[in-house]
Amino acid sequence: MNANAQQVIDWNGDSGACWVAHQEQLDRMLEPYGLAALTKAAIRSGDHVLDIGCGAGESTLAIAGETGPSGRALGIDISEPLIRRACERVRDTMPQAEFRIADASTMTLPVAGFDCLFSRFGVMFFDDPVAAFAHMRSGLKPGGRLAFACWRGAGENDWATLPLRAIEGIVPSAPAASPTAPGPFSFGDPDRVRDILRDAGFDAVEIEPIDHSVVFGEGATGAEAVDDALDRAFAVGPLRRALAGQADLVVVKAAAAVHAAFTRKLVDNRVLIDGAGWIVSARNRAH
Ligand SMILES: C[S@@+](CC[C@H](N)C(=O)[O-])C[C@H]1O[C@@H](n2cnc3c(N)ncnc32)[C@H](O)[C@@H]1O
């Protein structure tokens, strides 16, 4: 199997389709984390920036706003449906924003062409993270910057674990996946992230925690907000995987249990759940 083959299948299949369908809500959910990473990246006018795993392009468009027309914001992703959505969002007024379907770990990169490598939750999916980061670093100028947001462990992210706790006893629990297997929570251990980046040729690695509740559901009423949260939990995250292939009756019971759990998280017509991430930054060791 080629590197990252399973991710290519997932993000061009169900995962990609679900992200496109929920793009606006997911952008609102991830916004505080993306903004914190953007602040850390300290992008300047005229910078050339690679946005890794850019999805539907929200962060790339924000980066393009920072680089201005004299710079370049190149968003790349393995997902064809997400890049298609990103291209639909590019404004004529932002010629510096560009999108391309590519695997960040193998794509052709300009030698030392970028001032900054950036990502909002798009770098935790590589089969071989050291090789992937070493490859991406080859496209970075000497002393160039890396900044990204990633999740801490699943156990610290209630938005992921609350639905799973709610279905305990209803759905047989799946064998626990390795915490370092490619996936949203694979960068939960900061020592592992530091080792990956050092082995890939970065230095000045900084890893700072960010705690921010995520808006997991919203609506004109509390009932609408809970329905929205349920819809999202069935579309993205561990609940979707846990319920795959289960009998209809089990899914109905699970939905009722998750609905009750989300109702307990209602605040002003929004379902607010704890989220926990890292803001990671580093420099290209080659000076
Ligand atoms: C959790 S989503 C985040 C999307 C986007 N950055 C955002 O914040 O909305 C992860 C993204 O990483 C992409 N991805 C996973 N592996 C990749 C790889 N090897 N190269 C490029 N993109 C990848 C996926 O297709 C997906 O769009």
Would you summarize the structure shown here?
The chain has about 290 residues and is an alpha/beta fold.
What can you see in these coordinates?
One of its GO terms (molecular function) is methyltransferase activity. It holds the Pfam family Methyltransf_25. It is a single chain. By secondary structure, this protein is of the alpha/beta class. The protein has a domain of 196 residues: Vaccinia Virus protein VP39 (Rossmann fold, 3-Layer(aba) Sandwich). The chain is built from eleven helices and ten strands. The strands form two sheets. It has a seven-stranded mixed sheet, with helices on both faces. A hairpin with a 2-residue loop joins strand 8 and strand 9. The chain is globular and about 60 Å long. The two termini are 36 Å apart. The mean pLDDT is 95. It binds S-adenosylmethionine.
Low-confidence stretches: none
How many helices in DSSP terms?
11
Oligomer classification: single chain
* Major sheet description: 7 strands, mixed
CA distance, first residue to last residue? 36 Å
Output the CATH class name of the domain at 5-153 and 176-213 and 276-284.
Alpha Beta
Bound molecules: S-adenosylmethionine
Q: What would you call the shape?
A: globular
- SSE sequence, one letter per element: HHHEHEHEEHEHHEEHHHEEE
Strand content: 15-25%
Which second-level CATH architecture of the domain at 5-153 and 176-213 and 276-284 applies? 3-Layer(aba) Sandwich
Give the CATH topology of the domain at 5-153 and 176-213 and 276-284: Rossmann fold
How many strand elements?
10
Reading side by side through the largest sheet, how are the strands ordered?
3-2-1-4-5-10-6
Radius of gyration, Cα only, in angstroms? 19 Å
* Helical coverage, percent range: 40-55%
* CATH homologous superfamily assignment of the domain at 5-153 and 176-213 and 276-284: Vaccinia Virus protein VP39
